[in-house]
Design brief:
Elements (H helix, E strand, L loop, with lengths): L2 H25 L9 E4 L6 E4 L34 E2 L2 H8 L4 E5 L3 H5 L7 E2 L15 E3 L2 E3 L7 E5 L7 H11 L7 E3 L3 H7 L8
Parallel strand pairs: 3-9, 4-5, 4-8, 8-9
Antiparallel strand pairs: 1-2, 6-7
Length: 203
């Protein structure tokens, strides 16, 4: 075989392999184009967060439900209280890696134990106003003094856009003295997190 034909054949194989690699990369279910997974610290040790790679995967059971009756399961506002900042999944992932932010699952314990976002701690909404000391606030006669430089920011979430537990937690924390500007709200919650095939810890 002449050299130039051999070179053409080799070039074609290389081009074909490159196209195949590009196609394979396009099929990878990443968090971002350049990020397949991230590792976050948890009480049980580091946990890797990634997305389910099965492209036919679908939600089922409780998480596939679209309609829940009001007033118990009404759609929550994007901003549950003045000064609170809404966030999405990428911002939440960033906060999971930030030692100055505590990601809080505001649901009751059975919900939390049934599956949670890795790295989140459980502070049920019923306890949110009483546990501000864990965030660096100091107790005072009126509730808490949260003006110190060591007070951490929080990112709250619960079951989904129809769940009022973390919005209630945010409002109670603010009433107890926690600064609204230090609260971030992931409204999508567990339903949106699961819909994106993200890693869940627990049940």
């Amino acid at each position: 075989m002449p050299n130039f034909i051999r070179r053409l054949a080799t070039s074609a194989l290389i081009a074909s392999a490159a196209v195949g690699a590009t196609f394979a990369q396009a099929q990878t279910v990443n968090i971002r184009p350049d990020t397949a997974a991230i590792t976050v610290p948890t009480d049980a040790g580091p946990v890797e967060i990634s997305r389910i790679q099965d492209e036919t995967h679908e939600l089922s059971g409780e998480w596939a439900r679209t309609s829940r009756p009001c007033p118990n399961f009404c759609i929550q506002p994007m901003v549950p209280a003045p000064g609170v900042t809404p966030i999405g999944e990428l911002e939440l992932i960033g906060f999971l890696q930030d030692p100055n932010v505590v990601v809080i699952d505001g649901r009751v314990r059975p919900d939390f134990e049934g599956g949670a976002i890795p790295g989140a701690i459980n502070v049920p909404y019923t306890e949110a106003a009483d546990r501000l000391g864990e965030l660096g606030c100091e107790p005072d006669f009126e509730g808490f003094d949260c003006s110190g430089a060591d007070v951490k920011s929080v990112a709250l979430y619960c079951n989904g856009a129809w769940c009022g537990q973390s919005p209630t937690a945010a409002r109670r924390m603010i009433e107890a003295g926690f600064p609204a500007e230090k609260i971030y709200y992931y409204r999508g919650g567990m339903q949106a997190w699961r819909m994106l095939g993200m890693t869940v810890t627990g049940g």
